[in-house]
Amino acid sequence: MNRRGRVASGFSPGRVWAMLLRYLYLLRSSWPRTLELLYWPTLQILIWGFMSQFLYVNSNYVFRAFGVLLAAVMLWDVLFRGQLGLSISFLEEMWARNLGHLFVTPLRPSEWVASLLAMSLIRLLIGLVPAAFVAILLYHYSIFSLGLPLAAFFPVLLVMGWALGLAICGVILRHGMGAESLAWLAVFTLSPLSAVYYPVSILPGWLQHAAWALPSTYVFEGMRAVLFQHVFRADYLLTAAALDLVWLGLGIAAFFWAFHDARRRGALLQMGE
Amino acid sequence: MPAPAIYVEDLVKRYPAAVAVDGISFTVARGTTTALLGGNGAGKTTTLSILLGLLLPTAGRVQVLGEDILRHRYRVLSRMNFSSPFVDLPHRLTVRQNLLVYARLYALSRRRERIERLAGDLQIAEFLDRPAGKLSAGQKTRVSLAKALLNEPELLLLDEPTASLDPDTGDWVRSYLEGWRSRTGATILMASHNMAEVERLCSDVLMMKAGKIVDRGSPQALIGRYGRANLEEVFLHIVRRPASELEPVS
Fold first, then answer.
1. Beta bridge partners of residue B36, listed in sequence order
2. How confident is the model over A165-176, as pLDDT tens digits?
3. Is A7 inside any structural domain?
4. Hey, which residues does B175 pair with through a beta bridge?
5. Alpha-carbon dihedral angle through residues A238, A239, A242, A248, given to the nearest 10 degrees
6. Is residue A6, in this structure, part of any structural domain at all?
7. Is A99 contained in some domain?
8. Which of A105, A257, A260 is the best residue to mutate to test the B interface, defined by the most B CB atoms within 10 Å of its own CB?
9. B106–A98: do the CB atoms touch at under 8 Å?
10. CB-based burial of residue B67 (10 Å sphere; 0-12 exposed, 13-18 middle, 19+ buried)?
11. Position B91 in a domain
12. Considering the domain boundaries, does residue B203 fall inside one?
């Protein structure tokens, strides 16, 4: 290898690592941002933990499975933080107006996306692991007691978060920073449909059809099946995984179409606050 | 004979509301410094963006260092680079962190050694560990140049390299670029509004107006052709004439 380095050919893990390093430097440079990652998940656990303790003696639903609300909060956070972690790293480049620098290097959009996905996972774990331990310490409820199903639920929700995050990044690439708030808001439109805290059967019939198009709905129904009936619904998992592939495909397509369109419009140099 | 550093043929960039580049053709020979001149909106930045692969043209052929930039940009991006005072490096990372990230993006070996050497050359060593956002305009320009020279580019594209610099720092940057180009034999294509800078650095000038190349030649040839005292007067003459009176040369 000469001093100029290897000629860029194909997907390069080295460039993915370079971008990941950039986001880690960024995270390290600001302790308030790291604190923010911990703040909301922990606060959510505190609120829903006390709520669960109250409902345990006042509600048959929570009495049957104390952890049903806490598990729902934490699993919802996998989806939400997975999406937000990706979108925030993407927005960091917008705020820094850095796309003009990045894309005159051999960095490929797919390598950038890979680094955004990796950073999303890191940010998610920074936020969620301490919250999970707070639940164990304060309420004696461990999300890990879900056992193997948790290992299935986690990636399904994370991939759905990534799909949504990529689509949102695509919208921001297409419409500029005016669409920035979507990064925080869009996922919440799916919350009522995902049946996070209640069974999907509560929804009106016509809305249930929409709910069953979301991978997350299968996860939360599957979670309740584990907690209430002590059964693991493999059919739910397989359907959720298949839907995940569709969602991820759409998210990737939206992102790459928007990126190509930004190159056509000359937006990569101008994109910023 | 090696291909020219840049070969552009019938390049067009059309937006819904305007034509930014209107069928230009030009070549830039290897080892030269060429200026892309024109008033605001003449099409300079659009042309540079297309050469960098950041912007897709509507029509035309663009070869950079012998490669078709539209089809094979990844073959050539590691051999070129770009610097502009209007595109800052991320503010919250230190200068060293920024340079390390870019060194990795270019897959450079001996990254720290290379950064230290460039820091010495460009006199940025004392603020390598300062956030990039806390630098003065002159310091930012030198850091941006360090980023642009990390991969020892064969082709360097510069967008107004000395804009907003004081005369002393501007002169330092021009001297550095002169020395760097003659040492490395690299090619520079720069957009500039500083005519004295262009006269000093450039062997060739492409004059753009309303998306067309309306004249070209060495600074001295242009000054002679228009019977003016310097390139600034030539520039003013061209930008103030109605576009309809100027005959495109491409």
1. B191, B206
2. 999 999 999 998
3. no
4. none
5. -120
6. no
7. yes
8. A105
9. no
10. middle
11. no
12. yes
| For B111, nearest residue in chain A (alpha carbons) | A3
Question: Looking at this protein, which amino acid is placed at residue A235?
Answer: D
Question: A28 near B120, Cβ under 8 Å?
Answer: no
* Residue B177 near residue B144 (C-beta atoms within 8 A): no
Question: Which residues constitute the domain of residue B218?
Answer: 6-86+153-245
Helix/strand number for chain A, H first, E second:
12, 0
DSSP secondary structure of A220-232: HHHHHIIIII---
Closest chain A residue to B73 measured between Cα atoms? A106
Q: How far is CA B27 from CA A5, B6, B166, B231, in A?
A: 27, 5, 32, 21
Angle, alpha carbons B87-B71-A171 (nearest 5°): 55
Q: Model-level pTM?
A: 0.91
CA distance A200 to A209: 10
CA distance A171 to chain B (A): 19
Q: Under a CB-based contact definition with an 8 Å cutoff, are residues B95 and B129 in contact?
A: yes
Per-residue model confidence as pLDDT tens digits over B7-51: 999 999 999 989 999 999 999 999 999 999 999 889 999 999 999
Contact flag A268-B108 (C-beta cutoff 8 Å): no
Q: What is the CATH number of the domain that holds B177?
A: 3.40.50.300
**B76 to chain A nearest CA, in Å?**
8
- What residues of B are in contact with residue A2 (Cβ under 8 Å)? 109
Q: Between chains, do B82 and A4 touch, taking CB under 8 Å as contact?
A: no
CB A179 within 8 A of CB A171: yes
Residue A122, in any domain of the structure? yes
Contacts of A263 in chain B (CB under 8 A): 53-56
**B120 within some domain:** no
The domain containing residue A67 runs over which residues? 13-270
User: Which residues lie across from B223 on neighbouring strands?
Assistant: none
B173/B44 Cα distance (integer angstroms): 21
- Residue A189 CA from chain centroid, whole number: 14
Rounded to whole angstroms, what are the CA distances from B42 to B62, B158, B236, B243? 19, 16, 13, 11
**Contact across the interface for B93 and A17, Cβ inside 8 Å:** no
Q: Tell me whether residue B226 is in a domain.
A: yes
Q: Tens of pLDDT along B72-130?
A: 999 999 999 999 888 888 999 999 999 999 999 999 999 999 999 999 999 999 999 99
Q: How many domains does chain B have?
A: 1
Block residue for tokens 């053709």: B25
Assembly ipTM: 0.90
Classified as helix, coil or strand, A114 is helix
B87 touches chain A (CB under 8 A): yes
Among all chains, which residue has been given the structure tokens 């005159």? A104
For residue A23, which of B98, B26, B160, B36 has the smallest C-alpha distance?
B98
Pick the residue of B14, B101, B147 with the most A CBs within 10 A to test the interface with A by mutation: B101
Closest among A110, A252, A258 to A179, alpha carbons compared? A258
Distance of CA A195 to the CA centre of its chain: 17
